[in-house]
Amino acid sequence: METSESLGYLKGLIDGLDIDANSKEGKVFNAIVDVLSNLTEDIEDMTEGLELLGEQIDSVDEDLADLEEYVYDDCDCDCDCCGDEEDFEVECPSCGEVIAVDEDTIMQGDFECPNCGEHLEFEVEYDEDEDKE
Is residue 43 a contact partner of residue 33, using CB atoms and an 8 Å limit? Predict the structure, then answer.
């Protein structure tokens, strides 16, 4: 039974006692029922607020999932580091496919185009200032 239904049942029981509302007992029962009514309203308001908060959390969770998918979409590994790597775009001269390549691949000097299989080579130039650091 819901809280509001229980309160209605209690009010009915009190009314069935035929207690004079102006008597000491009647005033006490009426005050108790008023307090319980206020508590019931407060509980219903909090329940509605929690439901709204739950909906907002679900919405934020969905937005976060979309963002994670966007950020980590190209990663097929189970690591936590892929979002921190800087990718470079390279256009394959054979098929024209634009490929995202990470710094480690460029430092290796070569790789195959995943679209057409063409062997691509990179010339890596080092900045002299970086060598001194």
Answer: no
Predicted confidence at residue 111, as pLDDT, reads 86
pTM over 0.70: no
Within 10 angstroms of residue 43's Cβ, the number of other Cβ atoms is 13
Q: Cα 48 to the chain's mean position, in Å?
A: 20
Q: What percent of the chain has pLDDT over 70?
A: 83
Token digits for 40? 């019931």
**Bridge partners (DSSP) listed for residue 101:** 88
**Would you say 5 and 38 are in contact if contact means Cβ atoms under 8 Å apart?**
no
Give the C-alpha separation, 96 to 31, whole Å: 81
Q: Which two tokens stand for residue 119?
A: 């062997």
